[in-house]
Amino acid sequence: MKLSSDDSFTHGDTYLKVRDKYPEIRDFSANINHKSPEYVNGKKTEVLRHYPAGEEKIEVVIGRLITTDPGKIIATYGMTSLINYVYQLHSGKNVLLIEPIFSEHRRAAEASSCKITRLSMGALIKNMEILKNFNYDLISLNIPVNPTGEMLSHKEIEAIIRISMKKDATVFMDQAYIDFLTTRRQMELKKATEEYPGIIIGRSLTKVSGLPGIRLGFGICSSGTVRMLRKIRGPWTIPEEYTTILEKWSEYQPDTNMLLRERENITKELKKMKLTVLGKSEVNFLSFRLNEQIDPLDFERKLMEKGFLIRNLSDFYGFTANDFRINIRSQEENTELIEAIRAIINERR
Hints:
single chain; alpha/beta; Aspartate Aminotransferase, domain 2; Aspartate Aminotransferase, domain 1; 2 domains; seven-stranded mixed sheet; four-stranded antiparallel sheet; 14 helices
């Protein structure tokens, strides 16, 4: 996708830029109907009478929270929007998807007429040098990996970056679950990626806040890439009120010590039931495989009848209908889930 080098895209609604200095000002600048309703569904519409201008303020707040230059941050209406922008930027190019990966990556790549090649994470980990055999302009991967919750080592991440640099390729690292890693692991990941100018890191507030209705994601990349992505994004995409949500970022941070204890306990209990735990999760979920004697549809139905919904992984690349992912919740809830699984497993014996 070719974008002009001119950054001077402006629009007429400047009210939000001047209202703090002139709080009593009346807006004659926007050519919209001045007879807008005062209430909608019983709520005052004052905040809706002006175009949203949250992106710039949010990028400044994010920069402060993660100690990064706001000029290297692009705020987006959810991570899905960022994913779409990245593939639009690489429209028609060669894309290598490291699977499993969030399905929106493939959908966005197809929508942008990218030439897609897929490689399993397992094959990559066995031999990082295999990347040299692929022709790609963009390589995309989830770190931590969904649905197993696994992490790559510092050495493995550096290998991906090193090989991609030689190809002059962009690395798109979807880090939607990074907030569930320990602080030490987060710092290791940051250290492994921060020096490479050709990387785009995707982050999401949705997962860590536990509020999917909050559509707020952001990308971290070079200032040049940010400028191009902002042109694709356009204006008025994020409500200014999201700055208030971001200010409470620290309140959303999970208890990683609790997650570790619960992961270890759930893993131990699943293994007692002769179920195979897939990988070694470091985040707030883990995956397991039923043995072949258990009908996965029957298992899932009985679990729902007991009041528990877990994620079947049959639509994930490289996984089967016998594979499931469970989210780690409170100790009490996790215990109840394990007991429900145990009861169903014992019925088969």
